[in-house]
Amino acid sequence: MFNNFDLSQGLESLPDALRTFLFNLSQKLGNLKVIDLSYCKHLTEVPDLSGSSNLEHIDLCECTSLVQVPSYFQTFDKLTYLDLGGCLNLNYLPEMPVNIESLDLSETAIKELPSSVWSLEKLCSLNVNHCKALEKLPSNSCNLKVSGTFSLNGCVSLGEFSELPRYISYLDLSKTAIKELPSSLESLFGLTSIRLFACGSLLSLSTSIHKLKSLEILDLQLCSKFQYFPEILEPMEHLTSLSLSSTAVKVLPSSIGNLIGLRKLDLHHCGDLEVVPNSIYSLSKLETLNFHGSWCLGKLPPASVDQVRLLSLKELILAECGIKEIPDALVCLTSLCSLDLKDTGVKSIPASIKQAAQPSSLCLTYCQSLESLPELPPLLQCLEAGRCTSLKKVSSSRTALTQGWDVFSPPRLEEKPIFSGCPKLDENARSVGFLENKIVILFIQQKIGTRLYRGVGLLAYSLSFCWLFGLFSLSLLAIWPVGYLACSYSLGFVQETTTSIYTLKLPPLSKSVDLASSPSHYFIILLLYYKIFTKIFLEILS
Predict the structure, then answer these.
(1) Which of 171, 381, 456, 471 is the right S-S partner for 466, CB 3.0 to 4.6 Å?
(2) Rounded distance, CA 277 to CA 283, Å?
(3) pLDDT in tens, the chain (542 residues)
(4) Under the phi-then-psi rule, with left for phi > 0, alpha for psi from -120 to 50, and beta for the rest, what region is 389?
(5) Which of 384, 434, 385, 443 is closest to 410 using CA atoms?
(6) Can you give the residue ranges of every domain in the chain?
(7) How many CA atoms, within 13 angstroms, populate the side-chain half-sphere of residue 14?
(8) Could you tell me which of 429, 423, 425, 448 has the C-alpha nearest to residue 502?
(9) Rounded distance, CA 336 to CA 311, Å?
(10) Is residue 490 exposed (0-12), middle (13-18) or buried (19+ Cβ within 10 Å)?
(11) Which value, in Å, is the radius of gyration of the alpha carbons in the chain?
């Protein structure tokens, strides 16, 4: 008789007579398959549905006043979907029907799951996120077919568990009260990601973690009591990301070198970290190494160029660390793109930094002990060295500082001195501000080249048009006027540039550059046009 029953406005909003009628009618709804009572915030108990044995779908989501679920639900053999998510006052869950496939218990007040839940072989979706009162999971063998993600995120009272679904790939235990991971985790061979974010009671991990051969991501951020990272007894080639940021780790084990597939190691704000082993230099696939805010880290392990095999390292972040020097072998890595030494105690930068092949960024802001700056790599694009109050000498040559800046985009530049707040810096060094001149000049040259290309295109189009119609003499006459127009088009940008937002604002010691007033530029571009036109003309004749 009924296929759908929707009381989304709540039973309390209905007249008393109608509510009584519905309760009595529920005894006769034998063909009812779907019932939706979601968001009935005043519903305290479920209507008597014991006679509705054909129910397949029950939605009680966000029934915030609901305090219990009828025990007869377990007799509904056809029930496959039960949503109790957001039932904030529901603190007890009865036995569940054997054929249920989807069960949502998120944000309920239940304290434990009945053991039968782990035996529901058809259950493929189980949501228990943010069940703040949940203290334990079933201890019997877990036969759930749940795959993909299994999350206990926000179950702040959950201190232990023994069994989990076997086929999951992503395990989220964030903000739980667990102190250690159970050994049964070793049997989860398909597990690729473990998230333990803000597990404030977690103390350590088992050394058997290496048995998770498929593990790719291990996140221990904000595990404030986590002190001991385990020994990695065997190589883990699939682990690519390890985050220990804001943990209490003091020493990294030398066996960390067994994380041979690691690409990202995040140790930022590890305020207790004191020792990093030499084996960290053997991580050949590591791309990002972050020590930002690890202020107890007084030094990095010394190493020669031959010992450092960080062949893929692109980003090295040592900002706000306690280090006072940086090993030569680190700054000259051919793969290194970004080096951040902001607010460290370094006194000098190794001269070997000049050998770095592709650095794009060097941050030295607030390095108040830095006294000198060596010659920098030719392809360096961004240098930040403000507030270096002890900086006295900059040895960078103009060639080294400007060679690669033609690929840099001027809009990224801020019109302020690179060495602002460096009172001890001598005037010759301060003139490094000429970099801004060089960048803008190169930018203008690039624009001239673009317009030259367009001008040549205009000329070629005109000549082709004349040639196609047999107007050979006209094509010869068109060379010079069209060439003149093309040249003027190219040089017009120079005049625009000197009066536009790209007008050079130079440091006090540098001089303005007026490209438009230089006859040599006209001569050079006219000469280029002459050579191109001659070549085109010869090609046509041949």
Answers:
(1) 471
(2) 12
(3) 444 445 555 555 556 555 555 556 555 677 889 999 999 999 999 988 888 889 999 999 999 999 999 999 999 999 999 999 999 999 999 999 999 999 999 999 999 999 889 999 999 999 999 999 999 999 888 999 899 999 999 999 999 998 899 999 999 999 999 999 988 898 898 999 999 999 999 999 999 999 999 999 999 999 999 999 999 999 999 999 999 999 999 999 999 999 999 999 999 999 999 999 999 999 999 999 999 999 999 999 998 888 999 999 999 999 999 999 999 999 989 899 999 999 999 999 999 998 887 778 999 999 999 999 998 888 888 899 999 999 998 885 443 444 444 444 444 434 446 888 999 887 666 555 434 434 444 444 444 455 554 555 555 555 555 554 454 444 444 554 555 555 554 445 444 443 333 333 333 333 333 444 445 545 555 555 555 556 555 555 55
(4) alpha
(5) 443
(6) 440-541
(7) 17
(8) 448
(9) 9
(10) buried
(11) 35
How far CA 371 is from CA of 349, 389, 419, 423, 462, in Å, comes to: 9, 8, 13, 12, 61
Edge-to-edge strand ranges of the sheet holding 167-172? 147-151, 167-172, 193-195, 217-219, 241-243, 264-266, 288-290, 315-317, 338-340, 361-363, 382-384
Q: How many helices (H) and strands (E) does the chain have?
A: 7, 19
Determine the residue type at 228: Y
